[in-house]
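Q: Please design a sequence for this.
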């Protein structure tokens, strides 16, 4: 996610190829993408439930208008001032600042400083590269300096992206320790921490009893998937991937972590399923009609 967002669909297939889904494959019905129907669904009623992710919005007046019915929002905190964030909070919103722990974007002012730590280009995001999170200078810069600036602006918590770097590269121990180091630094600010994606990393936190380092997860594309990033083409999530995510979310919930869903769809029937699932389980969700997370909804 970043200027606009989350990549999950790009990395999920890498994860699924090497991790839990294959292990459970024989237990899952072999089904194609779900059939979709719009019959009998009140679209506007289930658009969102008070949670909003607006990483593609950098204008305060627009953001206030878009989030007028939200009590929790995620923003690109580096694009807003302390005064602007205060105005957002005055209306009763809890504000989370986006923080990219596992990749490096070319438009960040610190890009040149850490260019030497770049790994492979981030698929579907031409202005982004995976980054070597085992580097101590990177850990300190993200976990102290950038997080410190966001904390000084008054954000209520951090929305941490791209911990999937842990599962993409064969550097499991080094990258795990690097991400854990960043989380420990973030904890010192006494702010909520939401991990976006990063399911394989979070499962290791659970295994090693380190879930006290985070407060919640935000899982993308449980019920939906991105078919075309440039033209905002979406489809219902495939059965095996959806089963995998639901199973993962059960484990997360069991450990007492909060759960948020971020979905990309304009299909009414898919929206209804998201709404029903989240209400049943006590989760929060946001449905976007655009990959850019600019608040625009395409019906």
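A: Design:
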């Amino acid at each position: 996610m970043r200027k606009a967002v989350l990549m999950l669909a790009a990395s999920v297939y890498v994860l699924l190829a090497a991790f839990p889904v294959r292990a459970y494959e024989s237990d899952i019905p072999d089904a194609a993408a779900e059939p979709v129907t719009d019959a009998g669904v009140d679209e506007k009623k289930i658009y969102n439930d008070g949670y909003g992710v607006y990483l593609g919005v950098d204008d305060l007046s627009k953001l206030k208008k878009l989030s007028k019915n939200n009590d929790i929002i995620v923003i690109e905190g580096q694009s807003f001032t302390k005064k602007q964030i205060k105005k957002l909070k005055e209306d009763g919103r809890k504000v989370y600042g986006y923080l990219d722990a596992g990749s490096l974007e070319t438009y960040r002012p610190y890009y040149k400083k850490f260019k030497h730590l770049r790994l492979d280009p981030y698929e579907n995001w031409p202005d982004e590269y995976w980054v070597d999170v085992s580097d101590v200078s990177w850990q300190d810069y993200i976990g102290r300096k950038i997080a410190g600036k966001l904390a000084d602006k008054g954000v209520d918590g951090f929305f941490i992206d791209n911990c999937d770097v842990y599962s993409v590269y064969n550097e499991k121990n080094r990258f795990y320790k690097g991400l854990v180091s960043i989380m420990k630094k973030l904890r010192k600010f006494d702010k909520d921490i939401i991990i976006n994606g990063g399911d394989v990393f979070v499962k290791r936190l659970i295994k090693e009893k380190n879930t006290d380092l985070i407060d919640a997860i935000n899982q993308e594309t449980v019920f939906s998937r991105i078919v075309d990033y440039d033209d905002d083409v979406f489809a219902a999530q495939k059965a095996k991937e959806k089963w995998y995510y639901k199973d993962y979310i059960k484990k997360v919930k069991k450990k007492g972590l909060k759960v948020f869903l971020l979905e990309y769809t304009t299909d009414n029937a898919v929206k209804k399923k998201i709404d029903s699932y989240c209400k049943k389980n006590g989760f929060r969700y946001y449905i976007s009609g655009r990959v850019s997370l600019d608040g625009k909804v395409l019906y």
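Q: Thanks. Anything notable?
A: The chain has eleven helices and 13 strands. Confidence is low (pLDDT under 50) at residues 2-46.
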